[in-house]
Amino acid sequence: MGKMFDDNVNSTVARELLACEFAANKTPTLEVPFCRSRFDSWSCWPDTPAGHTANHSCPGFVVGFDKNRFAYHKCEEDGTWFVHPESNHTWANYTLCINKDDYTFRETITLIYNIGYSVSLVALLVSLFIFIYFKSLRCARITIHMNLFAAFAINNFLWLLWYNCVLNSIEIIENNPWWCILLHVLLYFFLISTYAWMLCEGLYLHTVLVSAFVSESRLVRYMLLLGWGIPTKTIIIYSLTRYFYGTTVSDTQQCWMDEGSFTRILQIPVAITIILNAVFLINILRVLLVKLKRGTATGAGSGASRASLQALRATMLLVPLLGLNYLIIPFRPETNHPWEYAYEVVSAITASMQGLCVAILFCFFNGEVITQMKRRWATVTFRPRESSCTATTTTGQISQFVRSNYGANAEKV
After folding, report:
1. How many degrees, rounded to 5, is the angle at CA 358 between CA 268 and CA 110?
2. Which SS3 state, helix, strand or coil, does residue 91 take?
3. Distance CA 363, CA 377 (A)
4. DSSP result, 120-155
């Protein structure tokens, strides 16, 4: 589904700019020719005497850069910063900052996210089309599935926009246009919606299994209020609180990318939904085990065996649906930790491919969907004209046989 709160990109740019301006005002002016201090969107270069080269630690917030390395900026003899001959712009040498192996790996991770979200988006859209096209599939359970799929699909699409339109543009991050803040708000609205509808899935299965008599139409109405109500209230509180009470630049600028303290408002409902789904799953397993024991006590050995397989299958399907896979990777290893790369790969695959997993398990492998698809395929491949022609030909042959053997009047009988 995406990284929940992992926008660790350019969160210190504004602070670097303020620090650079402050240092420039405090530093006394050099008497010899020098290059004036400047901020190049990544680093603050101090006043440097002409003919010297300034060095600065590489910015750690740039993906692929090693903060333990150094960048260089040359001050020419005439007191101007070096201008690159190809771009004709002032240029600092950051090429030594790149850890090529790490940079290649980060690009691979980004590619995994883009591919995973794209594949999941296509699978979810196909699933929604199937559920909408076959009206015979309409029921309370499928309605909940459709809302979950819609939340996943929109969230995946917004993640693709975020990765390709915002994170790849330093200018957008610096200018902080209104639409990138709106994209941030919508992104997390639908992200929380996926967790809320996961909760609805768990609550629905739990209610149907535990309660013998329940009005499904009323239950669906409650699910709609819960599935879209939780993210709506959460995102309103989050947006208003951050907009009116944000005091630092990182809280109000940079497309709201910095995690900050306000993200706890988003984390609380997500944590609650995961915990509740874990409780529902445990209780569902308990109820299933009780029913299996009752079946064994009544002597239904084979039936108990089939029920065991069904319970196991349901449990395996519930795990990816209810979002419990996020509980196995809650902690990110530190930088350069031996498990860091493994964590990044597993996190990227599980987050971006969850929509595909849900679509496969609850649509493409759904017995009702398969039956409807087979019926539709049989209808499409059936050729009534050929059948009609064959029937007409056969009837004509029979009539000719009757006339030749029994006379013309026999056909009237």
Report:
1. 70
2. coil
3. 17
4. HHHHHHHHHHHHHH-GGG-SHHHHHHHHHHHHHHHH
Query: What's phi and psi for 72, nearest 5 deg?
Result: -130, 145
203-242: b (≥16 Cβ within 10 Å) or e? bbbbeeeeeeeeeeeebbeebeeebbebbeebbeebbeeb
β-pair partners for 65: 98
Question: Which 3 state secondary structure label does DSSP give 410?
Answer: helix
pLDDT digits (tens, 9 = 90+) for 116-138: 999 999 999 999 999 999 888 88
Residue 233's pLDDT is what?
94
- Please write the tens of the pLDDT for every residue from 17-32: 666 766 666 656 666 7
Place of tokens 């649906």: 321
Least confident window among 192-196, 286-290, 341-345: 286-290
Within the chain, how many helices (H) and strands (E) appear?
12, 6
Averaged pLDDT, 63-68: 74
Three-state DSSP class for 373? helix
Residues whose CB falls within 8 Å of the CB of residue 228, separated by 6 or more in sequence, listed in order: 147, 193, 196
CA dist 259 → 58, 66, 69, 266 (Å): 22, 22, 26, 10
Which residues are CB-contacts of 207 (< 8 A; sequence separation ≥ 6)? 214, 219
CA 74 to centroid of chain Cα atoms: 44
The percentage of residues in the chain with a pLDDT greater than 90, rounded to a whole number, is 20
pTM of the full predicted structure? 0.70
How far apart CA 398 and CA 385 sit, in angstroms, is 20
The residue assigned the tokens 């445990």 is: 282
Entry field: residues in the chain: 413
Instruction: For residue 116, report the phi and psi dihedrals to the nearest 5 degrees.
Output: -60, -45
Q: How far is the first Cα of the chain from the last one, in angstroms, to the nearest whole number?
A: 74
The pLDDT score that the predictor gives to residue 12 is 58
Residue 83: strand pairing partners: 90
Query: pLDDT tens across 174-225, in order?
Result: 778 889 889 999 999 999 999 999 888 888 888 887 776 778 888 889 999 9
